[in-house]
Amino acid sequence: MLSFLRHAHGPVGHARLSVPISLSSSFSTARAILVGRSIGRRYQHGWTPHPHFIYSPEVKAALEADKPVVALESTIITHGMPFPQNVQTSNEVEEIIREAGVTPATIAILSGKVHIGLSSSEVQGLGQRGKAATKTSRRDISLLCAQGKDGATTVSGTMVLAHRAGIPIFATGGIGGVHREGESNMDVSADLTELGRTPVAVVCAGAKSILDIGRTLEYLETQGVSVVTVGGSKDFPAFFTRSSGFQSPSTCQDPEEAAKMIMENEVMGLGSGMVFAVPIPQEDEAAGGGKVQAAIDQALQEAKDKGIQGSSITPFLLDRVTSLTKGESLRANIALIKNNARVGASIALARSKNRQAHPVPSPGGKGMLPQPSSPRARTNEKVNRVRKRSAVFSILILSF
């Protein structure tokens, strides 16, 4: 029987194999490829589900239908608040997003599997585990997956996984940054580097007030990250307080303008994230900031005396500040997270409406969402190109 050779590619670094394929089966193979079958299903609007992620039914349905989704981190549940306030706050934040017509997607690693969207029982389990779950940034993801462990994602970890999952907007409390005395101890949050290389818009109440906010803004500038205060004022918020004493490089008036900025960032293919800083509502600002600031200064000194540093310092400082303010800072923390969720949902909804009204493909014409540039994605694209060339070759043979 007449046959031809088709190249089949294995993983990166493996040799090419020449496999004989009979003409009787080649036409069906070619036809399947030409009508769009490829590694990983790609929906018409450009979304491709990640083959190793577990999507909740709610999140998967929203992404399949090109509906707005807002990502949420899980360290707020495990490291940011005590139980049961952590679980209650997580559930309330998700409900706020749903009420806006947007789907929430809390991200975590459970038993070595990346989950995009959690059930109420999974949130409850994380809340009860607390700090026994690993605080997870980019560096930890592959390790936890390989070891089958649980991980609660930080801003950095959530950005990585949200981008891979096809979710471009993420709401949280506050970003990490350059710690005080960072110029000497080099304690700089991975959040800042991630913002420079992952195109996800982070809606937050600025940088946590325990940080060196001036140096944090300088570092973001170096990373090419757009920093925008939402609401018209140029004051950059400091988590518990509406102003840090520093100014943002830019402002936007409302969620609609923020959505346009995000879409331009996507269309340009810049590859960097964006920070949308939302000041805490005036009625929720904690004691004018004075009491909280005094507690922060005391907690910082205690951390220094005890030699606490690295990924342990932020949870320690937040716990200590909550204790010193007799819960005032925790109440403010919960209020600002809920407010950020409302704003994030509004931005996601505005972006969705703009995309439907003015569809503009991303660079390369591969759909509305920027495609991941991971080695796996690049390998899959190469495999698909080779398969399409092989399919065309087989059709040419059939025509003789």
Question: Any overview of this molecule?
Answer:
With 400 residues, the chain is of the alpha/beta class. The protein folds into two domains: 3-41 and 375-395, no CATH class; 53-357, Indigoidine synthase domain (Indigoidine synthase fold). It is 48% helix and 14% strand. It has helices spanning 23-34, 57-64, 75-80, 85-99, 120-129, 138-147, 155-165, 182-185, 190-197, 213-222, 255-268, 290-306, 313-324, 328-357, 375-399; strands at residues 3-8, 17-22, 53-55, 69-72, 103-110, 113-116, 134-136, 151-153, 169-171, 201-204, 226-230, 250-252, 274-277. Strands 3, 4, 5, 6, 7, 8, 9, 10, 11, 12 and 13 form an eleven-stranded mixed sheet that branches. A two-stranded antiparallel sheet has the order 1-2. Helix 7 packs parallel to helix 9 (190-197) and helix 11 packs across helix 14 (328-357). The chain is globular, with a radius of gyration of 23 Å.
